[in-house]
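User: Second chain of the day. Same drill as before.
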Amino acid sequence: MISWPSAVPTLLDGELMLRPWMPTDMEDVFQFCQDPWIQEYTTVPVPYTRENAQQFFVHQLDGFERQDAIAFAGVVNGEVVLSVALHHCTHFDHYCEVGYWVAPQARGNGYASRAAKLVADYAFALGFRRIEAKTLPENAGSQRTLLNAGFEMETILRGAMTRRDETQTDAVVFAKFPPVTVEG
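Assistant: Same format as last time:
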C-alpha cells in the first residue's frame, strides 16, 4: 500500500535540498527552460514561454493532488539548480517514473544523480517498489546520472520515444528497486 504524503516534503543530501516548488521560482524555471539541452532532452514546450512556466506550477500541484506526481525544486546555497519529479505514479502497481533537468550552470556537480537517488529512496519509503527512467539513446549524460544514482540499465524499447523533429527513436530504460532485506 502506498502512503501518499499530505504535502510535498523537503529532502536533504548535504548542501542539496529538494523542496516544494514556490511561485518565486517561476522566473528560474522560465530561464532554465530556454536552454537548448533541456529543450532537446525533455518534453518542455518549444518555444518555452512565461505562460508555460505558469502552467508548470499548475501541473505540479494537479499531479500531487491526483496522487500521481511529486515534484521538487533542487536548491543549493539558496539557488534553484534542478527540477526532479516522481511522475506517472501508479499505486496499484507500486510504480513511478523519475524525471529531471539541471540548470546549465549546475551541470557536472552530481546534483541530478543525488536528487534521483533521494527521490527514489523517498518513493520506496512511501511503498513504491519500482522506479523507472527513460532516456533518448544519445543522452549519455542522463544515462550516467541514472547509473550513478543506483539505477540499472534494463532494456531498450524499440521506437518508444519521439524526438523534437518528430522522428521515432528507441528509449533506453533504467530501473531501481528497493534494497532487499533478508531476515534471519
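The mean pLDDT is 96.

User: Great, on to the next one.
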